[in-house]
Amino acid sequence: MDSVLLLAGRAAAADHRRIAARARKIIGNIVGWLSLAVGIAGMLFHLQSHSFDQQKPKNLVYAARFVAPLAYAGLGLLLIMDRVTDPDSTEWAQWSRSSPSAASPAISS
After folding, report:
1. Sign of torsion, CA 89 90 93 94?
2. Whether the Cβ atoms of residue 35 and residue 70 lie closer than 8 Å to each other
3. Which of 16, 18, 76, 79 could covalently link to 36 via disulfide, CB atoms 3.0 to 4.6 Å apart?
4. DSSP letter at 52?
5. d(CA 38, CA 31)
6. pLDDT tens-digit readout, 58-103
């Protein structure tokens, strides 16, 4: 009887982990796509501003208003790519750690 309850508990825990992983993936995709949409909308909104009409040094210094939404869109794309890639694959592991030989050619002295 105890073994049946133990097996039922393990099966319930496995179902719970699978449902939680699926929910995290769905929520991550929603947040990623929303941040991508907000980033693109922010870029388009700032393109319509009149600060780029004249090419003065002051206007170029404040170009961060144009680039910052693109960074937000980039974070959304990174989150989407993270959710699409299988975490157990070698492809996902290579994102966080790359070999020095692959990143740049060896410098000999």
Report:
1. negative
2. no
3. 76
4. G
5. 10
6. 666 666 777 888 888 999 998 888 888 877 778 777 766 655 555 4
